Amino acid sequence: MRFPNAFRGVKKIWLAELLMLLAVVVGIVLLIVVAANSTMEGEQVVVNQEAVKTPVAILGISAALIALIGFILNLVGLINARKDDAGFRIALLVTVLGIISAAIGAIWSSNERLNDWMDTLTTIFSMFASYYVLTGIANLADRIPDPATKALALKSRTLVEGSFCATAVFKLIINIFNIQSGSTIHTIMAVVAMLLELLAYILYLRALAKGRKMLAK
Fold it and tell me: d(Cα 32, Cα 190) in Å, to the nearest integer?
């Protein structure tokens, strides 16, 4: 095993992204529950708060806890992997910035506009973090060498960044045009953004799994 630090790190990052994927799925289920208990009144979506209160609380807390564990694992994985390639070091820095933006949004969650902007910023930081992690895997594949893993990492990097960019664009449109939460267009765009984010996680996981297998040799 030529890069034991990267192997331990990528293994943890892979597990972290698996948990983040699960958190996104839980979030989509939450949206479905809310949509199933909503009615249209003109152009406004009205939610039956009494009906969704308990499931939203359970699903919301579950998604938050899963995401928190994923954040911690990802951070530890990057700390391990940074010793073997500069790409992981940059990814670690960007991830820390993402955690700060997420924390600001959580602290001032009562300010919906600020919270939305911090959520968008966190998505952008996630995009750059995944870019540099995949760059790190490609760099190590080049040094091993493993042309197939390098090609997959670079291809996945393009696809993942495309998915994250589309997600960020949707969120930016919501913020810039101040689309009201609860409106039909806001709900549709939120669902599309989550589905794109789900796609990004699946593509990212595939490349991480290949990189982990390469580094285990």
Answer: 12
